[in-house]
Amino acid sequence: MDIRRVKDYFSWLYYQYQIISCCAVLEPWERSMFNTILLTIFAMVVYTAYVFIPIHIRLAWEFFSKMCGYHSTISN
């Protein structure tokens, strides 16, 4: 894939994002505010998933391993 096609693909994706989220009809300051809020929410979701999903997986593993009679030798 050459650089031109990659650039065209990303500009197409950005255009699709603007059309789907109706950013194309917003004023520039509204568009930047919307993108900032959306990016903040996305960052918070990613951070929360990074922090809490491993904890929940470990707790679920401990719960189901105790139900099945499997005792782990991993200590906390």
Automatic annotation (TrEMBL):
Keywords: Endoplasmic reticulum, Lipid metabolism, Membrane, Sphingolipid metabolism, Transmembrane, Transmembrane helix. This is Serine palmitoyltransferase small subunit B. Pathway: Sphingolipid metabolism; Lipid metabolism; sphingolipid metabolism. Component of the serine palmitoyltransferase multisubunit enzyme (SPT) that catalyzes the initial and rate-limiting step in sphingolipid biosynthesis by condensing L-serine and activated acyl-CoA (most commonly palmitoyl-CoA) to form long-chain bases. The SPT complex is composed of SPTLC1, SPTLC2 or SPTLC3 and SPTSSA or SPTSSB. Within this complex, the heterodimer consisting of SPTLC1 and SPTLC2/SPTLC3 forms the catalytic core. Within the SPT complex, SPTSSB stimulates the catalytic activity and plays a role in substrate specificity. It is a multi-pass membrane protein. The gene is SPTSSB. It comes from the Eukaryota. Belongs to the SPTSS family. SPTSSB subfamily. The keyword Membrane applies. The chain crosses the membrane at residues 35-57. It comes from Galeopterus variegatus. Component of the serine palmitoyltransferase (SPT) complex, which is composed of SPTLC1, SPTLC2 or SPTLC3 and SPTSSA or SPTSSB. The heterodimer consisting of SPTLC1 and SPTLC2/SPTLC3 forms the catalytic core of the enzyme, while SPTSSA or SPTSSB subunits determine substrate specificity. SPT also interacts with ORMDL proteins, especially ORMDL3, which negatively regulate SPT activity in the presence of ceramides. InterPro entries: Ser_palmitoyltrfase_ssu-like (IPR024512). It is found in: Endoplasmic reticulum membrane. Its main location: endoplasmic reticulum.
